[in-house]
Amino acid sequence: MEKMIGKTKLSLIQGDITLQETEAIVNAANTSLLGGGGVDGAIHRAGGSKILEECKQIRAKQKGCPTGEAVITTGGNMATEYVIHTVGPVWSGGNRNEEQLLRNAYCNSLSLAEKNGIKSISFPSISTGVYRFPVDKAAKVALATVKEFIQEHRFEEVRFVLFSERDLKVYEEALKEIFTS
Ligand code: ADP
Predict the structure, then answer these.
(1) CA-closest candidate to residue 88, choices 46, 51, 142
(2) Does pLDDT of 109 surpass 90?
(3) Structural domain tally of the chain?
(4) What is the pLDDT of residue 70?
(5) 69: containing domain
(6) How far apart are CA 174 and CA 10, in angstroms?
(7) Which residues are near ligand 1 (CB < 6 Å)?
(8) Is the dihedral of CA 163, 164, 170, 172 positive or negative?
(9) CATH number at residue 42
């Protein structure tokens, strides 16, 4: 599914984020920046050891990456030029500022992309795996945040790469809802 928002294409696809050829892909990392399971593990495997080395250099300067913040490395062996590593919130019921922290993760990733002159970027569904953020809620937060950001800042494309068919459907429903409300 695709929607134009101003001059930016917002697209939703099912696939593997490590194979995307956008200028940047976003990693749902953890605060240590040392890799983990899920999409984080897949990105470090596909990108190779260079990404972990760059993450360690960042850690040496600023420890790790707090929840909601973002840092940038190269894409190592992947087709993408950059990986933006952001940390989504762990879901713990919804009263621990999870929505705002998820919004921050998307906004800070997009701001960092813009600062680096990046025009096309792919996101995974941040926080909805091991971090257990309910995917229907997360989809609405993700899409509303991105929509708002790209109304003010132009990109060529912002792509969501959903791993499962079910997640793609949930994101498609959320996008329709955002456009009809
Ligand atoms: P978090 O810790 O932020 O919840 P996870 O990696 O556990 O991050 O899950 C985030 C989402 O990424 C999940 O929907 C998971 O299915 C998805 N995912 C896992 N591997 C990939 C991949 N290679 N490409 C795109 N999405 C992926």
Answers:
(1) 142
(2) yes
(3) 1
(4) 98
(5) 2-180
(6) 13
(7) 16-18, 28, 38-40, 42, 88, 124-131, 161, 163, 167
(8) positive
(9) 3.40.220.10
**Ligand 1, from 14, 30, 39: best to mutate by most atoms within 8 Å of Cβ?**
39
Give the tens place of pLDDT for each residue, 2-12: 999 999 999 99
For ligand 1, the distance from its centroid to the CA atom of residue 19, given in whole angstroms, is: 14
Task: Kindly give the interhelix angle for 98-115 and 135-152, rounded to the nearest 10 degrees.
Answer: 40
Which tens digits make up the pLDDT trace of 76-88?
Answer: 999 999 999 999 9
Helices 38-47 and 49-62 pack at an angle, to 10 degrees, of: 120
- N- to C-terminal Cα separation, the chain: 18
Instruction: Look up the pTM and report it.
Output: 0.98
Neighbours of 61 (CB within 10 A): 7
Task: Supply the residue whose CA is at minimum distance from atom 1 of ligand 1.
Answer: 127
Distance CA 2, CA 41 (A): 28
Residues annotated as catalytic (active site), given as ranges = 40
**φ/ψ of residue 28, rounded to 5:** -85, 85
Name the residue of 19, 20, 102, 125 whose CB sits within 8 Å of the most ligand 1 atoms, as the mutation to test its pocket.
125
Cα separation, 16 vs 69, whole angstroms? 23
Q: How far is the C-alpha of 113 from the C-alpha of 108, rounded, in Å?
A: 8
Reduced to 3 states, what is the DSSP secondary structure of residue 108? Answer: helix
